[in-house]
Design goal:
Order of helices and strands: HHEEHHHEEEHEHEHHHHHH
Number of strands: 7
Strand content: 5-15%
Strand order of the largest sheet: 5-4-3-6-7
Largest sheet: 5 strands, mixed
Number of helices: 13
Structural class: alpha/beta
Distance between the termini: 72 Å
Length: 440
C-alpha cells in the first residue's frame, strides 16, 4: 500500500510538472510570436474590427454626439494623377534660348520669311554638384611714409583661431552627420571624390568645436525656453558610443524632450533616473512619457503632473491579439474609439483654423462628455479581465492588463488637462532620426 501511495504521489508531481512545462512552453510561444511579428511583421498596429467575428460591432454615435462632433462629411476621393509636378517657384531659372537659324526662318514651300507667333517652354531640373574652392584673403598693407606705422586690411573673423576651413565646411560636416546621418568615414570618401581629403579624426574635432563654440549658447537658450512650457513630452533610446581613451564601445542613451515644435536631445551614459532628474530640474508642469520608472523621481520632487501614453497601452493589447483575441479584441475596439475622438477634434481644428485656446476648450468639452464614457468602459473591462482565471500574469494579455492597471492614473490624466496629447508619439517621431543614424 505504501508503494502504491508513493507511486500515486510521484505521478501527481509529474503531472503538475508537466502542466507547468506546458504553460511555460505556451508563454514562450507567445513571446516568440510577438518578437517575430515585430521583426518581420507590419510595424503599424493596424486593427480591423470586422475581423473580430466574436464581438459585437461598436455602437453608433448618438444624435447628440454627432452634433457635438460636427464632423465634415467625407468627400469622394479623387484618383491621384500621374502627371509631373512642376518645379517649385523658389528655384532659380536659367533661360536657354532655342531658336532657328537664319536659314531655317523661311517657309519651305514659298520661301517667305517666318513670323514669330509664340513660344513653348520646357523645364528640366539641373543639379550642380558641390564644389570645393579656396578663399584667398589678400590683405593689403599700407605704411606711413614718415615711418609712423603700418596698417593692414582685416579678413573676416574665422570660426576658430588659425582654423583651416570656413564656417560653411564646419556646418556642412555637422549637418551631414547629424541630419543626413552620414558617418564621418563616408564623408571622408565623398570628399576624396572631389579631389580633396579631410581625415575623419580632423572632422571629429571640427564637429566637437561646433558643439562647444556655436552649439552650447543656442542649446542653453532653447532649454530655457523649453523649461518655460506648460507641457513636455519625453522619451529615450539607446545609442552606441566610443569610449574616450579606451578601445571598444559602450551603450549610452539619448533622451528627447519636446513641446510645441521645440525639440532638445540630452546624452547620458546610462538610463538611470539621473538623466531626466538633471535635465528637468527647473521644470514644473505636465510631463508625458511611457511607463518607465526613471521619471518617478523628478515627478515626485518637482510635483509634476505625469501623463501616460495610450499608444504604449494599445501596443501591448495588440501583441496579445494572436494568443487572446477574445480578451484583447474588445479592448482594442475601445482604445480605437479614444483615438477616433481625438482625430475628429483635430480635423475640426484644422478645418476651422482654431487657435490653441479654442482647441483646448473644444478638447475639454468633448473629453468630458465623450472620452470619459469610453474610459469608464475600458476601466470596467480591465477589472473584469483582471479577475478572469484564464488571464495569467505572465501571458501577453496578462502583461497588457497589468500595464494598464499600473499606469491608470497617468493614462486618464488627459481628461483633466486639454493640452495633453493622447499619446507620446510626437516624442517617438522626434527620436526616430536617431534610429536611422544608428543603422548608418
Amino acid at each position: 500500500m505504501e508503494e502504491h501511495a508513493a507511486l500515486l504521489s510521484e505521478n501527481e508531481l509529474l503531472r503538475l510538472a508537466n502542466a507547468q512545462k506546458d504553460e511555460e512552453i505556451r508563454l514562450l510561444k507567445e513571446q516568440l510570436e510577438v518578437l517575430m511579428s515585430r521583426v518581420f511583421g507590419r510595424k503599424r498596429e493596424r486593427f480591423n474590427p470586422d475581423q473580430l467575428s466574436l464581438f459585437e460591432s461598436e455602437p453608433e454615435a448618438t444624435e447628440e454626439e454627432a452634433i457635438e462632433y460636427e464632423e465634415i462629411p467625407a468627400h469622394r476621393r479623387r484618383k491621384k494623377g500621374h502627371g509631373r509636378k512642376p518645379f517649385p517657384d523658389h528655384l532659380p531659372r536659367n533661360d536657354i534660348l532655342c531658336d532657328l537659324s537664319d536659314e531655317d526662318k523661311v517657309c519651305d514651300e514659298c520661301q517667305a520669311a517666318l513670323k514669330l507667333i509664340g513660344q513653348d517652354i520646357t523645364e528640366r531640373g539641373h543639379l550642380i554638384p558641390a564644389q570645393w574652392q579656396v578663399n584667398r584673403y589678400i590683405k593689403k598693407k599700407y605704411a606711413c611714409p614718415h615711418g609712423h606705422g603700418v596698417k593692414t586690411g582685416e579678413a573676416p573673423a574665422p570660426l576658430l583661431e588659425r582654423c583651416k576651413f570656413e564656417p560653411s565646411v564646419y556646418a556642412a560636416i555637422t549637418v551631414s552627420k547629424f541630419v543626413d546621418h552620414q558617418p564621418l568615414n563616408r564623408q571622408e570618401s565623398i570628399f576624396k571624390r572631389h579631389g580633396f581629403s579631410i581625415p575623419r579624426s580632423t572632422m571629429g574635432d571640427m564637429v566637437q568645436r561646433v558643439a562647444e563654440i556655436a552649439g552650447e549658447p543656442v542649446i542653453r537658450q532653447m532649454k530655457e525656453e523649453l523649461m518655460g512650457e506648460r507641457f513636455i513630452q519625453a522619451d529615450e533610446t539607446p545609442i552606441t558610443v566610443l569610449q574616450e581613451g579606451r578601445k571598444g564601445s559602450k551603450q549610452g542613451y539619448l533622451w528627447v524632450y519636446r513641446s510645441k515644435g521645440k525639440v532638445l536631445f540630452d546624452f547620458r551614459e546610462d538610463r538611470k533616473r539621473a538623466g531626466p532628474s538633471g535635465f528637468l530640474k527647473d521644470f514644473s508642469g505636465i510631463l508625458q512619457t511611457d511607463g518607465y520608472s526613471g521619471y518617478n523621481e523628478i515627478v515626485a520632487r518637482n510635483g509634476l503632473v505625469r501623463a501616460g501614453c495610450w499608444s504604449h497601452c494599445r501596443r501591448k493589447f495588440h501583441d496579445a491579439l494572436k494568443s487572446a483575441k477574445a480578451h484583447a479584441g474588445p479592448m482594442m475596439l475601445l482604445i480605437g474609439r479614444l483615438f477616433r475622438i481625438e482625430s475628429a477634434m483635430k480635423k475640426r481644428r484644422d478645418n476651422r483654423a482654431m487657435g490653441e485656446d479654442a482647441f483646448h476648450a473644444l478638447r475639454a468639452r468633448v473629453r468630458s462628455t465623450r472620452s470619459v464614457k469610453v474610459i469608464d468602459q475600458i476601466r470596467e473591462l480591465l477589472l473584469d479581465l483582471d479577475l478572469r482565471p484564464a488571464v495569467l500574469p505572465k501571458s501577453e494579455i496578462g502583461k497588457a492588463v497589468i500595464y494598464a492597471m499600473n499606469q491608470w492614473k497617468t493614462l486618464v490624466a488627459f481628461l483633466d488637462h486639454p493640452e495633453v496629447e493622447l499619446d507620446n508619439n510626437a516624442a517617438e517621431r522626434a527620436i526616430r532620426q536617431v534610429a536611422l543614424g544608428r543603422k548608418n
